[in-house]
C-alpha cells in the first residue's frame, strides 16, 4: 500500500505485491456517512486484469499450493483466521468508512464470521473425500475405480458493496481450501477492506494465490469473467448483472456460481411470541439499512393481530438511532451512495402512489455531524398488497412492506409469488407448524423465530432467480472442485474385457485380426 500525505492510495494486489494500474489512473472512495474522501484506489483496466490472472495461473500451474496435503492447507486456513482477528481493528475501520456498516455489527459479527469460515473450511478439508474408492462393479466389468476431487484452477470473484469483506471470504475460503488460486474484483464503492484482506492472507500463502484488481465493473469485471485463463466465476450482486455474468462466462463455459437478489417473505403466525417476533422482524429488515440480499422485506401478518403488530413495529422502529457507523451507539448507518438513496426514495414514492400507507419514515434524514451523508429513516408501509412494486422489486434500503393475510395458505402462496427465493422466515410457538410452513417455502434458507442467522457449516444460496449454487457449508467446497473418475480394469485377459465382444464379435479370437 503506498502512503500519500493525508489520503492513502491503495494499489492492486498482484502476485503478493502492491501494483499501480498500468495507466496510472485512480478513483476516489468516499465515506457514505460523511461524503469525505477516504482513499484513492488504482483504477484497473483489462491489462491489469491480465497481469493478475497470469499471476494466479502461474501460482496454480507451477506452484505447490494445489499439491499441499489437506492437513497442511488446513493449517494455513487456521492461520488466516488468526490473521483476520489480529488485524480486526484495521479491517473494521476500512469496512465501516467505505460501506457504512456499523462498527458494532462488523466487530461483533463480520470479523467472527470470517474467522469462523476459514476455521470451518479447515475442518472440512481434513475429512474431505479427495480420493474415494468405489466397490468393484458387476457392470461394465471388474474394475478398480477412484473418484478424485481436484481444484478447478484459477477462480474469479466479483463482489458487491454491501458486505464486502464477508462476501469476499465466502469465495476466498472454499477456493483456497480446495487448492485453487483466485482473482477478486471488489465493488468500486468498497474495495479497501478486500485489498487489506488480500495483503493479510498473502502473509501466509504463496504469491499469486490471492490477487485483487479494483475498477469499474463493465471494464475490470467483464475482463475478468471473460478471461480465457479463468476457470471459474463466482459473483454476488444484482440479478441483472448476474444474468450478464452468466452469459459472459458461457463464452468459455466457465463453472459459475451466482448469489443474487431477494425479496424475502417473513410470515408471522397468530400464535407468534410478539415480544420476540417484532424486534426480530425489524432486525431482519433494517440491519445495515436494509442493504442485505436476504433482508426480510415482506412481512405477512394475519388479520387478527394486524393492528397490534403494526403499532408495535412502528413504536419499536421509531426508537432506532441513525448515525455515523463509527459511533458505537449508532443503530442504523447510511445507505451506500447518493444514487442508491435516490433509488430508495423513488421506491418510497412508488409505494405512496400505489396506495400503500406510510406508517413510519419515508424520507431522507440529516444526521448531525454527517452533513453530506446518505441517510434514510427506517420506513414502514402498511396496507401493502403483494402485487405492488414495493413488494415485488428488491429495494435494497430500509423499507418494510407489511402485507395482511386471512389464511396461512394465502400467506404461503403470496410468499412464494416472487422471482426470488433466497431467504424466508416464520414466527410461531408451534414448531411442528413452523416445519410444515418451512417445507412449503421456496427459499434457500428458512429461519424459524429468527433472521440473518448464517452458519459457516450450512449452505447459503438461492432458489429461482436468487442464484445458482451454494456458498459456505460443505457444498461450497464442491463448487470449487472438479471431479475425475479413474478406472483401472481388473480383467487381465483380452476376452474378459466387456468391450471385446462388442467390437470384435463373439466368434473372433484373440490375435486373429
Ligand atoms: P451490481 O450487481 O451492479 O454490482 C455488483 C458487482 O458487480 C460490483 O463489483 C460491480 O462493479 C460488478 N459489475 C457491475 N457490472 C458488471 C459487469 N458488466 N461485468 C462484471 N462485473 C460487473 O450492484 P450495484 O452496485 O449496481 O447495486 C444495484 C442493485 O443490486 C442494488 O440496489 C441491489 O438491489 C442489488 N445488489 C444485490 C446484492 C446482493 O448481495 N445480492 C449486493 C449489491 C447489490 P462496480 O462496483 O465497479 O460497478
Explain how this protein is built.
It is built from 16 helices and 24 strands. The longest helix is centred in the N-terminal third of the chain and has 25 residues, at about 105-125. Helix 1 (about 45-60) packs parallel to helix 7 (about 215-225) and helix 3 crosses helix 4 (about 105-125). The strands form six sheets. The protein has a seven-stranded mixed β-sheet, sandwiched between helices. The protein has a six-stranded mixed β-sheet with strand order 11-10-9-12-13-23, sandwiched between helices. The protein has about 525 residues and is α/β, with parallel strands linked by helices. Strand 14 (about 265-270), helix 9 and strand 15 form a beta-alpha-beta unit. It has two domains: about 1-260 and about 465-480, Aldehyde Dehydrogenase, Chain A, domain 1 (3-Layer(aba) Sandwich), CATH 3.40.605.10; about 265-455, 3-Layer(aba) Sandwich (Aldehyde Dehydrogenase, Chain A, domain 2). About 50% of the residues are buried. The protein has helices spanning about 45-60, 70-85, 90-100, 105-125, 165-175, 190-200, 215-225, 240-250, 275-285, 305-315, 340-355, 390, 410-415, 430-440, 475-480, 500-505, and strands spanning about 1-5, 10, 10-15, 15-20, 25-30, 35-40, 130-135, 145-150, 155-160, 180-185, 210, 230-235, 255-260, 265-270, 300, 355-360, 365, 370-375, 380-385, 400-405, 425, 445-450, 465-470, 480-490. The structure holds NADPH dihydro-nicotinamide-adenine-dinucleotide phosphate (NDP).
Amino acid at each position: 500500500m503506498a502512503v500519500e500525505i493525508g489520503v492513502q492510495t491503495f494499489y492492486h494486489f498482484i502476485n503478493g505485491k502492491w501494483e499501480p494500474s498500468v495507466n496510472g489512473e485512480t478513483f476516489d472512495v468516499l465515506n457514505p456517512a460523511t461524503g469525505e474522501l477516504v482513499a484513492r484506489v488504482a483504477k484497473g483496466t483489462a491489462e491489469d486484469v491480465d497481469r493478475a490472472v497470469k499471476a494466479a495461473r502461474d501460482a496454480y500451474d507451477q506452484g505447490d499450493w494445489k499439491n499441499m496435503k489437506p492437513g497442511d492447507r488446513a493449517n494455513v486456513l487456521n492461520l488466516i483466521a488468526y490473521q483476520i482477528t489480529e488485524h480486526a481493528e484495521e479491517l473494521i475501520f476500512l469496512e465501516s468508512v467505505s460501506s457504512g456498516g456499523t462498527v458494532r455489527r462488523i466487530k461483533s459479527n463480520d470479523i467472527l464470521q470470517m474467522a469462523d469460515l476459514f476455521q470451518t473450511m479447515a475442518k472440512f478439508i481434513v475429512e474431505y473425500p479427495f480420493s474415494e474408492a468405489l466397490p468393484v462393479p458387476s457392470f461394465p466389468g471388474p474394475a478398480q475405480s477412484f473418484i478424485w476431487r481436484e481444484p478447478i484452477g484459477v477462480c474469479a470473484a466479483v463482489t458487491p458493496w454491501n458486505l464486502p469483506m464477508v462476501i469476499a471470504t465466502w469465495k476466498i475460503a472454499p477456493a483456497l481450501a480446495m487448492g485453487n488460486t483466485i482473482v477478486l474484483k471488489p465493488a468500486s464503492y468498497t474495495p479497501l477492506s478486500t485489498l487489506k484482506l488480500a495483503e493479510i492472507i498473502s502473509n501466509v500463502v504463496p504469491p499469486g494465490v490471492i490477487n485483487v484488481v479494483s475498477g469499474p465493473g463493465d471494464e475490470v469485471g467483464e475482463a475478468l469473467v471473460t478471461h480465457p485463463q479463468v476457470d471459474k466465476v463466482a459473483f454476488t450482486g444484482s440479478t441483472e448483472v448476474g444474468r450478464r455474468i452468466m452469459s459472459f462466462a458461457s463464452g468459455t463455459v466457465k463453472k459459475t456460481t451466482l448469489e443474487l437478489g431477494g425479496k424475502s417473505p417473513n410470515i408471522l403466525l397468530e400464535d407468534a411470541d410478539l415480544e420476540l417476533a417484532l424486534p426480530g422482524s425489524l432486525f431482519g429488515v433494517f440491519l445495515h439499512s436494509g442493504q442485505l440480499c436476504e433482508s426480510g422485506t415482506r412481512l405477512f401478518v394475519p388479520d387478527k393481530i394486524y393492528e397490534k403488530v403494526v403499532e408495535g413495529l412502528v413504536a419499536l422502529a421509531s426508537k432506532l438511532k441513525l448515525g455515523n457507523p463509527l459511533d458505537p451507539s449508532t443503530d442504523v448507518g447510511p445507505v451506500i451512495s447518493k444514487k442508491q438513496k435516490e433509488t430508495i426514495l423513488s421506491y418510497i414514492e412508488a409505494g405512496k402512489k400505489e396506495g400503500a400507507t406510510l406508517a413510519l419514515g419515508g424520507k431522507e434524514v440529516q444526521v448531525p455531524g454527517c452533513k453530506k451523508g446518505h441517510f434514510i429513516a427506517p420506513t414502514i408501509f402498511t396496507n401493502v398488497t403483494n402485487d405492488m412494486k414495493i413488494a415485488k422489486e428488491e429495494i435494497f434500503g430500509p423499507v418494510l412492506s407489511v402485507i395482511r393475510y386471512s389464511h396461512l395458505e394465502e400467506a404461503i402462496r403470496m410468499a412464494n409469488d416472487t422471482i426470488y427465493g433466497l431467504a424466508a422466515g416464520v414466527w410461531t410457538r408451534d414448531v411442528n407448524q413452523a416445519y410444515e410452513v418451512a417445507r412449503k417455502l421456496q427459499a434457500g434458507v428458512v429461519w424459524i423465530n429468527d433472521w440473518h442467522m448464517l452458519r459457516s457449516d450450512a449452505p447459503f444460496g438461492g432458489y429461482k432467480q436468487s442464484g445458482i449454487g451454494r456458498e459456505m457449508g460443505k457444498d461450497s467446497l464442491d463448487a470449487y472442485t472438479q471431479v475425475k473418475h479413474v478406472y483401472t480394469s481388473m480383467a487381465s485377459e483380452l476376452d474378459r474385457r466387456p468391450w471385446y465382444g462388442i467390437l470384435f464379435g463373439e466368434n473372433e479370437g484373440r490375435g486373429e485380426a
